[in-house]
Amino acid sequence: TGNLDYRYSRDRIHDEEQIMAFVLMLRQFIQDKDRTSIKRMANLYEDMLINEDYKIEFRNLRKRFNDYLDSLAIVTTADDPTMEQILRTMIYGKYAHMEDAKREVLERWQEYEGDLDMIVGEFETVLFRCADTISSMKQLNEQVLKQYYSSSRSA
């Protein structure tokens, strides 16, 4: 296996320690088996006795996020990866629970001049979108909890 200590031709936006910390937190939201996964939150929203507008807003946030993840990356490789493929390949090929297949894809991407820099740029963009989506969901969750607690006190 090749060396996956990336050398970028541009200035790094984030250092590896920051990315690792965020990736470890992010996994809780994108791994369906985790209690705090977005998929499980969606099920909770559907089962809760809350204003339908909150459910619709959560569905829309989730759909926009999934549509983004399903979109093709700007970088053109033999794989033509989606944003989600880049996200999961970077997470499970470099940062957490190393998977041989994901690591092999990273090594293949590294072989093409300029591709890895583009992939890393796309990865950082996906991380930003993940943070933005999670932040929006957090704000919505706070609104739902506020409504829930105020309605349970008046009952």
Give a quick rundown of the structure.
This protein has 155 residues and is mostly helical. The chain contains 6 helices and no strands.
Strand content range: under 5%
Number of helices: 6
Output mean pLDDT: 86
Q: Which runs of at least 5 residues are low in confidence (pLDDT < 50)?
A: 1-10
Instruction: Kindly report how far apart the N and C termini lie.
Output: 63 Å
What Rg is obtained from the alpha carbons, in whole angstroms? 18 Å
Give a quick set of tags describing it.
155 residues, mainly alpha, 6 helices, 70% helix, elongated
What would your notes on this structure say?
The structure is a single chain. With 155 residues, this protein is mainly α. The chain has helices at residues 16-30, 38-47, 52-70, 83-95, 100-111, 115-154. The longest helix is centred in the last third of the chain and has 40 residues, at 115-154. The chain starts with 15 loop residues before the first helix and ends with a helix.
Task: Lay out the secondary structure.
Elements (H helix, E strand, L loop, with lengths): L15 H15 L7 H10 L4 H19 L12 H13 L4 H12 L3 H40 L1
